[in-house]
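Q: I have 237 residues here and want to know how they pack in 3D. Can you give me a structure?
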Amino acid sequence: MEEKVTCDRCTDKLCASKVPIFSNLSREELVEIIAMTGHRSYHKGESVFLEGTNAATLYLINVGKIKLYKYTKEGKEQILHILADGDFFGELNLLKEGTYGFYAEAMAETRVCTLTKDKLRNLILKRPEIGLKILEVVSERLLKLENLAQNLATNDVETRIAQLILDLSKENGRNIDRGIEIKLSLTREDMSNYIGVARETISRKLKKFQDEGIIEVIGNKKIILLDEERLKGHLSL
């Protein structure tokens, strides 16, 4: 499942300074952390770990994209988070004995650096501010999960899709003359698994928003958000 590789490009710039929890460390401290890390590589679609396996590693994404997900009672995939360069995962059960509560899978060719539970504990004891930064990120992710659960439980399909587009615009959007250009890292299937609707419904609602002049869909990889305020208006429908 896991392929250990040498990582010649896994320098302090790529492995450690990309990660916000290490952002205030000196170069010497970053080099010290790099010496603690292992390196692994995953192909698109390859599993990093399964739900229920022993939690013993913190993963730092060097290059690539990882999705964290669970399965619903109906057996449908529910995406929890999609993480990219500089993000980390696998942190929740590292300070005590436990197992991973979700699946992790590479969505693209991905290289990660790893810290074992014992090394992470020693690092936090030496630099408590790193532990505090980890808690900040965990708090943000828990809030995002709460919002996701509320969105799935209380909002209709159109509202869910509108919220997803707005979230993607904040994460991946850039301002252009016509509006906000969003480069999609999600396939239609991923979008479906994120907000709990059928893939065909995603395509139909995106076309509706396009016909209304709110967005422009360019192939499967790009959306231009033409009228952000009108899209926000769909959140209260």
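Q: Anything worth noting?
A: The first strand starts at residue 3 and ends at 4. The first helix runs from residue 12 to 16.
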